[in-house]
Amino acid sequence: MIEITYLDASKNEKTVTFESYEDFDRSQQACLIGVADYYPVQKLTYNGHDLDYHGTYGDIFFYLKKQDLSQYN
Q1: What are the strands of the beta sheet with 41-46, ordered from one edge?
Q2: Which string of b and e fits 7-16 if b means at least 16 CB within 10 Å?
Q3: Higher pLDDT residue, 69 or 34?
Q4: Which of 34, 47, 28 has the alpha carbon at shortest distance from 6?
Q5: Are 72 and 38 in contact (CB under 8 A)?
Q6: Would you say 26 and 33 are in contact if contact means Cβ atoms under 8 Å apart?
Q7: Rounded to 5 degrees, what angle do the CA atoms 25, 4, 27 make?
Q8: What kind and span of H or E run contains 68?
Q9: Rounded to two decimals, what is the model's pTM?
Q10: Which domains does the chain show, CATH number per domain?
Q11: Rounded CA separation 13/45 (Å)
Q12: pLDDT on residue 52
């Protein structure tokens, strides 16, 4: 499971979850999630492991592509 906590335009903390990496990937490819790419991410977890990500929502896709997520399965 992927859990992303970010700040929206009003600086309200929001969380979005995906059951799998594939679900997240599909949402990004199809632009299904109404989260702006520039929203700052506060926390990114994969299967309960904090990935220590610092950046924007829009860069998560590329960040995860470079990670060895198999170590967290």
Answers
A1: 13-18, 2-7, 41-46, 49-50
A2: eeeeeeeeee
A3: 69
A4: 34
A5: no
A6: no
A7: 25
A8: none
A9: 0.90
A10: 2-72 (3.30.1490.390)
A11: 15
A12: 94
